[in-house]
Amino acid sequence: MAKAANIKTLKIDGRDVSARQNETILEVARENGIFIPTLCTLKGLSNVGACRLCLVEVKGTARLQPACVTRVEEAMEVTTNSERLQGYRRAILELLFTERNHVCAVCVSNGHCELQSLAQKLEITHVHFAYRYPEAEVDASHERFIVDHNRCILCTRCVRVCEEIEGAHTWDVMGRGIDAKVITDLNEPWGSSQTCTGCGKCVHVCPTGALSEKGKSVAEMLKRRQFLPYLTQMREEDRS
Amino acid sequence: MSKLRMATVWLDGCSGCHMSFLDLDERLLLIAEKVDLVYSPLVDVKEFPLDVDLTLVEGAVSSEDDLHKIRMVRERTKTLVSLGDCAVTSNVPGMRNPFPLQAIYDRAYKENVTLDPQIPGEMVPPLLAKSRPVHEFVTVDVFIPGCPPSADTIFYALSELLEGRMPELSAKTRFGA
Amino acid sequence: MSPEELDQIAETERQAQLGFKHRVNVCVAAGCVSCQSEGVKQAIEKDVARRGMGADCEVKGVGCMGLCAQGPLVSTSAGVLYQKVAIEDAPAVVESLLAGPDPRLLCKTDVPFFQAQKKIVLENCGVIDPERIEDYIAAGGYTALMRALGELTAAQVIEEVTKSGLRGRGGAGYPTGLKWSTVSKAVGERKYVICNADEGDPGAFMDRSVLESDPHRVLEGMLIAAYAVGASEGYIYVRAEYPLAIKRLRIAIRHAERFGLLGNYISASRLSFHVDLRLGAGAFVCGEETALISSIEGKRGSPRPRPPYPAQEGLFGEPTLINNVETFANIAPIIRNGGEWYAQIGTEKSKGTKVFALAGSVTNTGLVEVPMGVTLRQIVYEMGGGPPEGRQFKAVQTGGPSGGCIPADFLDMPVDYENLAKVGSIMGSGGMIVMDETSCMVDVAKFFMDFCASESCGKCVPCRVGTYHMHRILDAITERTATAQDLAQLQELCDLLKNTSLCGLGQSAPNPVLSTLRYFESEYQAHIEQHVCPAGVCGKLEEALHG
């Protein structure tokens, strides 16, 4: 096949852009400085299309498409930021705020939280759905880390990094619907997990204050993500 | 030009938002040129007056007294502003919400008290089952999140409102700011 | 197994059956089993033996005869159907073989419930013994497979299915021929055929009935599909709540393997096909194809975004064909009689027949198979006998939790995929729940929302949190504490879930709310504005508790 065939050209928000054929809309948008909000996706991990924040309009397609998993196509016309999309994104973020107890003011990740900053970016000044105020656990049994389910948004980054990068598969999800939650091993205390290597990758990919290091007080938990692109890159080089 | 009638109300909050308001410092004088503060924990008026143009509410709605107050305030106010995270999200007062009311009372008045522990009856307004944000009970016109919103944010919001404009607050503040 | 051998088996079986002067068929599908039909069968066998009629009279356990409300059902070679047969009635049933029909037990069969049916999928149900492959073969079973293997190329099989106009019976109505064609063109190390038997809609039991009554029909459909798309392995994903269906499928698979109808180089052709069962653990979402695949792979049953569709990347990343039980059950007759024959039945865009499970406020609860295009009135009134005790029909709910409530105005609408969609419902798997004036439509919507909220897998935000809020608001409406703002929020959430949820469960979860709002908005208003429930349903419990 001619090499030229591997390049696609398309329009995002009226801008002509080019892309490699296997790229997703999200990747191409980011390369071109076009912002599409996401919470579950993280470069270096598999994409699950779960948070639904990156939904975009694709001309000729009735349904909205998740930018994180939708591959580019030749002559595609993508709209990333219509009023309709903004409305849906705000509603989805608001739903997340109502789901658990996100008390930003007293959170270890205050000021460094993707949920919080995205809410600001999407101009959310209040939540118009009723808060749930569920009873959620805090598991501090691990010697170095804490999981606070009050802050979890079930993005499953921890689950994916643990399985795909660390290879431990300590984390998974249990329960259905609103009762779904992330667990360590077979819902045992993190501290007594037989599989956890204590690598801390889950803590650092977590977008909120749900996973944090012990000893951190309000607003002190800064996440370090630099390791992820390196690890993925090294693996890719290894493979090729 | 007649001055705007402004009020501030303190529901279930720590008074930090009022402190932040006071942090306007000399800018308070600029505000004072344009408004009459007709009711506030900071002034000595007992009754919330009629025909208030602008009311800032600090705090969540946590007790029957709060609920009674906010309904009256809403009736008598043109523009109601939720000031700070407690009013906007219920924030820290809402942290009791996952627990049953009885457990809250027991914790506050029995478990932590050594001398004659008892749950007060008439003197303290009964708590609502949940502490909730103001807009879940009455219509709120402007939301200023932050814990507390900074003096700059408050000054910006007031300046805009006094000019008859809607402030763009997400550029200035956020939950937990 | 060659076609000749198959004919031989059929002939032997037919001869053996002709050897009996009398026959008593006792329904042993789950509905009748639940009212002791197995005891009835034993009692009849005992009575036959007592009379020394063992050589003359065959007592056969058969599948579902349809009128489940009147079970246990027993039919005899004298051409009569008996209803509500108790163990004590066994002598009377046997006696009637000689003395003529017993009017006391007689179930009228010259009524529309039976006469208006057109049986293709259910042709063997209530006729053959589901636990004997010979009986299926005697009824013409596996001849379609032989025809496909011996006379048709894979492409020709797909052409027949395409010509038939058959559409997926699991819910969405995707053209079956097109799906098969896509899988056949897909490239992979190996291909899979999956039968989706995770029937989960409340009130729907068509698939269960087919599996319990005629399991080989499903296997034959899968085999033909495997031949058409080039698959070598198959799975039947059946919910663990269907123990009888599982038992009979296991027997059927074992028999088919023993007869060389499953295994390597079937009938000396290039087709090798093995089938295995996978039991679902009761998650509704596993009826969604990508969640089902994930569950078979041993992972948590939650859906993933499509594309890639299973036809390209399905089970273990390989091209996979997934069809529902009823879809597979239609295949053998289509191959036997040709696609054109099938396409003559039904409406322009919805061909063939559809099995409906009639339930709720309807006199004749049970299964009916009718040509596409009959009206709701024919199904609910003529066949179903309408609501019992002179109650007033209010709506019929079709399509389960993803469907909608259709009011009386549309009773004369011909039932097909397009028309149901037009009025805000869906065909779904074929559940039909009839409601009368004693049903509160808000309460009905709440019931389905409760179902969706507890069956949401929790993966995507709109479905996980949105269904919770929708149920909360519906609950407040039925408690008569909701406001107009709550109603507006409910509508906002309907739109959000429909357009942003990851899979069909979340996208269609608002349907019961949307359709009841569309046709019964006044009931919502009555709850909200006047704080009353017009049907007198909401608040009944509190009154009962507090006097």
How many distinct folded domains of chain C?
4
The Rg value of chain B, from CA coordinates, equals 17 Å
Uncertain ranges of chain C: none
At the first level of CATH, the class of the largest domain in chain C is Alpha Beta
What keyword list fits this structure?
heterotrimer; A: 240 residues; alpha+beta; Ubiquitin-like (UB roll); Alpha-Beta Plaits; 2 domains; five-stranded mixed sheet; three-stranded antiparallel sheet; 6 helices; 10 strands; B: 177 residues; alpha/beta; Rossmann fold; five-stranded parallel sheet; two-stranded antiparallel ribbon; 21% strand
Task: Describe this structure as you would to a colleague.
- Chain A has 240 residues and is of the alpha+beta class.
- Chain A contains 6 helices and 10 strands, in the order E-E-H-E-E-E-H-H-E-E-H-E-E-H-E-H.
- In chain A, a hairpin with a 5-residue loop joins strand 6 and strand 7.
- The two termini of chain A are 20 Å apart.
- In chain B, the strands form 2 sheets. A 5-stranded parallel beta sheet of chain B has the order 2-1-3-5-7. In chain B, strands 4-6 form a two-stranded antiparallel ribbon.
- The radius of gyration of chain C is 24 Å and the shape is globular.
- The model of chain C has no long low-confidence stretch (mean pLDDT 95).
- In chain C, helix 7 packs across helix 14 and helix 11 packs across helix 14.
- Chain C has a 5-stranded mixed beta sheet with strand order 10-9-13-11-12. In chain C, strands 2-1-3-4 form a 4-stranded mixed beta sheet, covered by helices on one side. In chain C, strands 7-6-5-8 form a 4-stranded parallel beta sheet, with helices on both faces.
- Chain C has 547 residues and is an alpha/beta fold.
- Chains in contact: A-B, A-C.
Strand and helix layout:
The complex is a heterotrimer of chains A (240), B (177) and C (547).
Chain A: E1 7-12, E2 15-20, H1 25-31, E3 55-58, E4 65-66, E5 77-79, H2 83-99, H3 114-121, E6 138-139, E7 145-148, H4 157-166, E8 171-174, E9 181-184, H5 201-205, E10 211-213, H6 227-239
Parallel strand pairs in A: 1-5
Antiparallel strand pairs in A: 1-2, 3-4, 3-5, 6-7, 7-10, 8-9
Chain B: E1 4-10, H1 16-22, H2 27-34, E2 35-39, E3 52-58, E4 61-63, H3 64-76, E5 77-83, H4 85-89, H5 101-111, E6 127-132, E7 142-144, H6 151-162
Parallel strand pairs in B: 1-2, 1-3, 3-5, 5-7
Antiparallel strand pairs in B: 4-6
Chain C: H1 3-18, E1 22-27, H2 30-33, H3 37-50, E2 57-62, E3 74-76, E4 81-82, H4 90-99, H5 112-115, H6 133-138, H7 143-151, H8 154-164, H9 176-185, E5 192-197, H10 206-213, H11 215-229, E6 233-239, H12 243-258, E7 274-280, H13 289-296, E8 320-324, H14 325-337, H15 339-343, E9 353-360, E10 366-371, H16 376-383, E11 393-398, E12 404-407, H17 417-422, E13 431-436, H18 441-455, H19 461-478, H20 484-500, H21 504-508, H22 511-519, H23 521-530, H24 540-546
Helix pairs in contact in C: 3-4, 7-11, 7-14, 8-9, 8-11, 10-11, 10-12, 11-14, 18-19, 19-20, 22-23
